[in-house]
TrEMBL record, chain A:
Protein name as annotated: Alpha-galactosidase
PANTHER family: ALPHA-GALACTOSIDASE MEL1, ALPHA-GALACTOSIDASE/ALPHA-N-ACETYLGALACTOSAMINIDASE
Lineage summary: Bacteria, Bacillati, Actinomycetota, Actinomycetes, Kitasatosporales
GO MF annotations in UniProt: alpha-galactosidase activity; carbohydrate binding
Keywords associated with the record: Disulfide bond, Glycosidase, Hydrolase, Signal
Family annotation (CDD domains): CBM35_galactosidase-like (cd04081), GH27 (cd14792)
Enzyme Commission number: 3.2.1.22
Organism: Streptomyces phaeofaciens
Occurrences of domain CBM6 (ranges): 475-597
Gene3D superfamilies (alphabetical): Aldolase class I (3.20.20.70), Galactose-binding domain-like (2.60.120.260), Golgi alpha-mannosidase II (2.60.40.1180)
Domain of life: Bacteria
Signal peptide: 1-35
InterPro entries tied to this protein: Aldolase_TIM, CBM6, Galactose-bd-like_sf, GH, Glyco_hydro_27, Glyco_hydro_b, Melibiase_C
Catalytic activity reported: Hydrolysis of terminal, non-reducing alpha-D-galactose residues in alpha-D-galactosides, including galactose oligosaccharides, galactomannans and galactolipids
Automatic annotation (TrEMBL), chain B:
GO biological process: carbohydrate metabolic process
Domain (Glycosyl hydrolase family 95 N-terminal) ranges: 55-106, 122-260
This protein's UniProt keywords: Signal
Species: Streptomyces phaeofaciens
Secreted keyword on record: no
Name the record gives this protein: Alpha-L-fucosidase 2
């Protein structure tokens, strides 16, 4: 949820109460997340979770979805309708979570309701039978139930600091926030919790207790920072997430903790430690007449996911947000866009939860959501795929599978059809390979060195590639080698993540790096691996032997201490060549090295 | 082979068009009329096209980027851009005469012409044809490929779906006057889907099979489609034609308007019912198998295409392995010449001319191809470079018959152009009116339409330039009948200029000279300048051409003497002592933009003959021309680069000329200047907004031909500007040259190894290479081979 209309709360008189300080360091001394979530609990998030979420339909202005005002779709009746549809159509493919998103404790004017302990309580119009009843009904279908809370103490729950905290003698809402009532979360809709005060964890414990008692299996904690469009101490909710982790463990109920949104990659270690999944981006929903749109903002994920790839794995996954591909008209996407959307989510090993109206899936949407081969890629043991080419309009992503095959996806993010080629060299081998067309359930036979397919605008293809050739052998050329020519402000710098522990940086506004003696035996186009470091997406002009340049965009590696490699095609002549990496008129990534195949 | 027909008079044929007795002249019939049975080749072998003449791509067009990605088809008047998406074939269908607007004869307050889509009019789409094949989505098929066979005029799309290879071929047939789409497959595949033919102007469909409409200007139009298949079912279902379970499917489309190239009839043929005629045409074609239709078309197209063959050298296997778009990118990025690609680019220009300029209106700013109904500058006829450039290639590249559309157009417009000139040119509000008060003959505005109308500003020198272009075609063909046809145009233009020239005395001199009245040198600098070089050069050439025409036809000898006298007194431009450039405005100062796109003051260098890098032209004039051309630069766009290339070829600077050719071959990215995916030339109007203008697709090949062969009556020079990139080995056959000959030429290491000259009516000419020359005299039809020109 990004833009829910939390009403502003007038500043209240501050009330301070002296309380015992929680032992400092308790939280930070806690062992790693999985160990911390109580050894008694069943393993959570061994695989990306699958299910349904209510927010896409709540947030859409699609005709008829929210007749009683914005976000009004969320009701017990609608949740149960979707539960039944999920159970009937998708459960057998692995979809199991039914996740109630924001607003279950708010009336149709978005006014929140709390119990006497400042805990969110069900709006009686939306959920006349309370939250436990819904969870029970979901469980009765053999499914799991998810619920939602924002980070911090919601302003409306503060109640002049007078509300007692459940099961915490003497604690009131005044005892869990900062004296200056500083706000927090992505919408400044809560007072920031002060975890140096002993009552504060009790409040989280009390919320967790409610959720566990109602029988929920999943919690989305939203508006978490750094992230959610905010940074700085005021919006640092790492302690909140840690407190939730602890509180959930204390309930004894395995509850998956998913945090949202646009989380700061600089805190990836914290998110991994305390949660089972983290939204890497803003909401996928468009808040428009459809559920989503390509530009706003499905397509952001291709740019933003690569930096996160290395952080995903059993226990915690990169959450790309809802997978709204089930009904083309309602989704607001072309068939090609829907396939690309499903492809990226699958290969990036994002949780697969759809936000579609499951009672109105069209046949193509159903086929996308229920493709067993694609689901197997998402749920299998292979690591998430990452780009093997620059972040250009035509790009290739790949992952090496435990059985030695590769999952390879071609994407055409351009607005017009284009041919896209996956060169086996970018996978590290050469020669022949067997190709299976995953979406079309066809074996395409053996392909030599590469596969090229025509992709529609915003389209994709998904292949399983079985190498039958040999490994590519390469020659490494370090950027910092003295034989290279640096121009402009380019300079050698230390880099612990780089080979040789050095890189060339300061490649901006005309700064360039030229490798002067790149020798190959035969003329041809070579897939040259460029290993680089870049804290943000940057571009580079690549040329050989002083010829025309090709500009490529390099995805962020997440920070300035992490290296990644992608392949760029470079046409070389037999014998000695120069290869130039030039910042041109912009800012280029730092370069660790290039690896040039010994044969094209 | 189909020898060029003997210049039948278009007007005669028009009146005979509906009769079946004119079979001998069928090749020149205006297409959208009832016509007799096409000539069908008997036992024509399936010709295999050389890979040199195959362009190919690995992606279809985007429905919203058809002008850059659609592949052009055309039968000379009926055209289409084809998208070739497997699941949804899309054809944007055009007819050259599909124009809104009218004669537009009410001047604006400034004495110039209105220039809007309603008054002046615009070239627009005729129809939109879609063939939907559910389940054949691009994402669901493999190994997609489409090719454009330049030699046979066929677009072929292939892809594999569930193990079956599907193939569709499409072509625009002139003999059958229809567009044909033929869907086949090689296995157990079946075609199930629907065909939809829609208008683009809000027409109410009559039936799924045809529609009709009309414009406020009175033009009526219509189009029709039919479909037939094997093994399945084809039936009309409401406003579409459904087909199911067909092992193959043929779709036939035709359409047109009631336009008639006849001023007296106000450019309409009231007896023609376009919808009915279109229905008759698709019905007639559908009586034949798709293979028969294809063979008939390929023979017709191939006869013209095969007239010129060109090799600029051999490309590498690596270059050949790339598709056309990759190859353009590789050419631009790698920098290595790709001689087969460069030759194919020239042949593509020839393909466009065969497809776009036969039997109807001439090629406009967009040729025959549109992706919407609001083309820039109305897709009109621009008379201050673009229309002329479209036809510079026709004779030079062996497509003289395609030139006739321009002649026919000018003749059909002449009565209207004349009356507009007489009635409106001397309007007191027109800043370009004749200050003498006299008014005679005809001229045009910068823009013209097919309704006899002008648009935008008056263009006094336009009549001279059009005439010079028409006369140059005479110089290539030495066709007396062509000369007879254009003679009234030439004479009327002379009369216009006789009335317009002013007598003046140059500063510091006493000699009286004639200069052009106030004018604008296209399209920069002062709006009202007298004696602009552009006009002086064009009129000087016009008067010379008129003298030659009068002499050949033995007509109006007295008037020819008068015109010759005027020519003697014409002021000719000098080199500025200030800039060192040939003057553009009878001023030593540079009054315009240094790198302006137009080369108006250089019309005497190209297409004119007055300025030549030989002993005939003073060295200081050559220096002034060279300096001006150098100052204009090499980084303009499409047609401007092509014109620069032509001028450098004339100055025998091979590398500069080649650089301009290569600059135009740069791939257009994000609307930038250069060559689009489909090889259409794109002009960047504003950052990110490129538009298609076809002139560079013809001007660039013209420059390439001019680099290989230079000619003027009585003089041929081979390889005047051969760049290093093409020098190693090459050949070209079937090159018409001025004076009435055709040249075949082979070279090795930059030197001609064999030059063959065949007379097509010419008698004597000099043939040169560098300093070596021979004089050749031939009978009509005779030929000679020269092997010693390199010595």
């Amino acid at each position: 949820m990004r833009s829910s209309p939390y009403p502003a709360l007038p500043a209240r008189a501050l009330r301070t109460t002296a309380v015992l300080a929680l032992a400092a360091g308790l939280l930070t001394a806690a062992p790693a997340a999985q160990a911390d979530t109580a050894p008694t609990a069943a393993p959570v998030a061994a695989k990306p979770f699958m299910g349904w979420s209510s927010w896409s339909m709540q947030s859409s202005k699609y005709p008829g979805l929210n007749p009683d005002g914005d976000y009004s779709y969320l009701t017990e009746a609608n949740v149960l309708k979707q539960t039944n549809a999920l159970a009937a159509k998708l459960k057998k493919y692995g979809y199991e979570y039914v996740n109630i998103d924001a607003g279950w404790w708010r009336d149709k004017t978005w006014k929140p309701e709390f119990d006497r302990y400042a805990r969110q309580q069900a709006d009686p119009v939306r959920f006349p039978n309370g939250m436990k009843s819904v969870a029970d009904r979901i469980h009765a279908k053999g499914l799991k139930a998810g619920i939602y809370l924002p980070a911090g103490l919601e302003k409306e729950a503060y109640n002049d600091g007078k509300s007692p905290i459940w099961n915490a003698d003497g604690c009131t809402t005044a005892d869990i926030v900062h004296g200056d009532l500083r706000t927090t979360n992505g919408w400044d809709s809560s007072y920031k919790l002060d975890f140096s005060r002993p009552c504060t964890q009790k409040y989280i414990d009390s919320q967790a207790r409610s959720i566990a008692d109602w029988g929920y299996d999943f919690l989305k904690l939203d508006g978490v920072g750094p992230g959610s469009g905010k940074n700085g101490d005021q919006y640092d909710n790492v302690a909140d997430v840690a407190a939730w982790n602890k509180a959930i463990a204390a309930t004894g109920r395995p509850i998956h903790l998913e945090i949202s949104w646009s989380l700061d990659i600089g805190h990836a270690a914290d998110w991994k430690k305390y949660s089972q999944g983290w939204r890497i981006d803003t909401d996928v929903e468009c808040y428009c007449n459809t559920l989503v749109s390509w530009e706003n903002s499905v397509d952001d994920r291709w740019d933003d996911a690569p930096a996160w790839t290395r952080h995903a794995g059993p226990g915690g996954w990169n959450d790309l947000d809802s997978l709204d591909v089930g009904n083309g008209e309602m989704d607001g996407l072309t068939k090609a866009e829907r396939q690309s959307y499903a492809t990226l989510w699958a290969i990036a090993k994002s949780p697969l939860y759809t936000g579609d109206d499951l009672t109105r899936l069209d046949s193509y949407g159903l086929s996308l959501l229920t493709d067993r081969e694609v689901i197997a890629i998402n749920q299998g043991d292979a690591p998430p795929a990452q780009p093997v080419t620059p972040a250009d309009p035509q790009q290739v992503w790949a992952a090496k599978n435990p059985d030695g095959t590769y999952t390879v996806a071609l994407f055409n993010l351009a607005d017009a059809p284009a041919a896209v080629t996956a060169d086996w060299g970018t996978l590290g081998f050469t020669g022949k390979a067997g190709v299976r067309d995953v979406w079309n359930h066809e074996n395409l036979g053996t392909r030599q060195n590469r596969i090229t397919q025509a992709l529609p605008a915003h389209g994709s293809r998904l292949f399983t590639v079985t190498p039958r050739g040999g490994a590519v052998t390469t020659t490494a050329y370090e950027a910092e080698a003295p034989a290279n020519t640096l121009a402009g402000n380019a300079s050698v710098a230390g880099c612990s993540a780089c080979s040789g522990e050095k890189k060339v940086g300061n490649l901006y506004l005309g700064g360039s790096l030229r490798f002067n003696d790149v020798v190959v035996a035969k003329a041809g186009t070579y897939q040259v691996k460029v290993t680089y470091v870049s804290g943000d997406p940057r571009s580079l002009d690549v040329s050989a032997n002083g010829g025309g340049t090709t500009r490529h965009t390099f995805a962020s590696t997440g920070d300035w201490g992490t290296a990644a490699g992608v392949y760029v095609p470079v046409t070389l002549k037999a014998g000695a060549n120069t290869i130039t990496l030039d910042s041109g008129s912009g800012y280029a990534p730092d370069i660790d090295r290039i690896d040039v195949p010994k044969s094209a | 082979m189909n020898p060029r027909p003997a210049d039948p008079s278009r007007r005669t044929l028009l009146s005979l068009a509906a009769t079946a007795s004119v079979t001998a002249a069928l090749g020149s019939l205006p297409a959208f009329t009832a016509s007799a049975a096409p000539h069908r080749p008997t036992a024509a072998p399936e010709r295999v096209t050389s890979s040199r003449h195959l362009l190919w791509w690995r992606a279809p067009a985007d429905e919203h980027s058809m002008i850059e990605q659609g592949l052009p088809l055309g039968n000379g008047r009926l055209g289409a851009l084809a998208g070739n998406d497997p699941g949804r074939e899309l054809l944007l269908v055009t007819d050259a005469t599909m124009w809104t607007g009218g004669v537009n004869d009410t001047l604006d307050a400034d004495g110039q012409f209105p220039y809007g889509r309603d008054d002046f009019g615009s070239f627009t789409l005729l129809a939109r044809l879609t063939v939907d094949l559910p389940g054949h989505d691009l994402s669901a098929v493999n190994d997609y490929r489409r090719t454009l066979d330049l030699a046979r005029g066929v677009v072929t799309t292939t892809y594999v779906r569930s193990g079956v290879t599907y193939r569709r071929q499409m072509f625009a047939s002139r003999p059958d006057d229809v567009i044909v789409l033929h869907f086949t497959q090689n296995g157990r595949g079946r075609y199930t889907g629907s065909v939809t033919l829609d208008g683009t102007h809000g027409e109410t469909p009559s039936t799924a099979e045809s529609f009709a409409g009309s414009f406020p200007g009175g033009l009526r139009y219509g189009a029709a489609v039919t479909a037939y298949g094997t093994g399945g079912r084809v039936r009309v279902n409401g406003t579409r034609i459904d087909f199911s379970g067909c092992t193959d499917l043929t779709v036939v489309v035709s359409g047109g308007t009631d336009y008639a190239p006849d001023a007296e009839a106000k450019y309409r043929d009231p007896s023609l019912d376009p919808e009915k005629l279109a229905r008759a045409k698709v019905r007639a074609a559908a009586a034949h198998s798709a293979d028969t239709l294809l063979r008939t078309h390929a023979a017709d197209h191939g006869d013209l295409f095969g007239r010129l063959d060109l090799s600029l050298g051999t490309s590498t296997e690596a270059q050949r392995s790339l598709d056309t778009w990759e190859r353009l990118n590789a050419r631009a990025h790698g920098g290595a010449p790709d001689p087969e690609l460069e030759a194919a680019y020239l042949q593509y220009g020839r393909y466009l001319m065969i497809a776009g300029s036969r039997g109807s209106l001439p090629l406009n700013l967009q040729g025959l191809w549109l992706d919407g109904n609001d083309p820039e500058w109305m897709g009109d006829y621009h008379t201050d470079i673009n229309l002329q450039m479209n036809y510079w290639m026709a004779d030079r590249a062996g497509l003289s018959p395609c030139f006739d559309a321009l002649t026919d157009y000018c003749l059909a417009q002449l009565p209207s152009w004349t009356s507009l000139t007489r009635e409106l040119f001397n309007d007191p509000r027109n800043r370009y009116r004749n200050s003498s008060g006299k008014n005679a003959g005809w001229t045009v505005a910068i823009s013209t339409n097919p309704h006899g109308g002008n648009g935008w500003w008056w263009h006094p020198a336009g009549s001279a330039w059009l005439c010079n272009t028409l006369f140059e075609h005479y110089e290539y063909t030495v066709s007396r009948s062509h000369l007879e046809r254009i003679y009234p145009l030439l004479k009327g233009a002379c009369e216009f200029w006789e009335a317009r020239l002013l007598t003046t005395t140059l500063p510091g001199g006493s000699r009286e000279v004639l200069i052009a009245d106030s004018d604008w040198s296209p399209e920069h600098g002062p709006l009202d300048a007298k004696g602009i070089t552009y006009a002086q050069e064009l009129v000087w050439a016009l008067f010379g051409n008129y003298a030659a025409a009068s002499a050949r036809l033995r007509k109006d000898t007295g008037y020819a003497a008068t015109i010759a006298g005027l020519r003697e007194k014409l002021h000719l431009p000098r080199v500025s002592p200030t800039t060192g450039w040939l003057e553009e405005w009878m001023s030593p100062d540079n009054l315009g933009e240094t790198t302006h796109r137009h080369l108006s003051p250089l019309v005497g260098l190209f297409p004119g003959d007055r300025i030549r890098p030989d002993a005939s032209t003073p060295a200081d004039l050559i220096d002034g021309v060279t300096a001006l051309l150098t100052a204009r630069g090499t980084e303009s766009f499409g047609w401007a680069n092509a014109w620069r290339g032509l001028c450098w070829a004339r100055l025998k600077n091979a590398e500069n000329a080649y650089r301009l050719v290569v600059n135009n071959l740069r791939p257009s990215v994000n609307g930038g200047n250069g060559t689009a995916f489909n090889l259409f030339d794109i002009y960047e109007m504003a950052p990110g907004r490129g538009i298609f203008q076809i002139d560079a697709n013809f001007g660039t090949p013209a420059a390439m031909m001019e680099m290989l062969v230079y000619s003027r009556p009585g003089s041929v020079e081979v390889l005047p500007a051969l760049p290093d990139a093409w020098a190693e080995a090459g050949s070209v056959t079937g090159v018409p040259v001025r004076g009435g000959f055709v040249v075949d030429l082979a070279w090795r290491y930059g030197k001609p190894t064999e030059v063959r000259l065949r007379s097509t009516g010419g008698r004597t000419t000099k043939v040169a290479h560098g300093e070596v020359s021979r004089t050749v005299t031939l009978e009509a039809g005779g030929s000679v081979t020269l092997k010693d020109l390199a010595r």
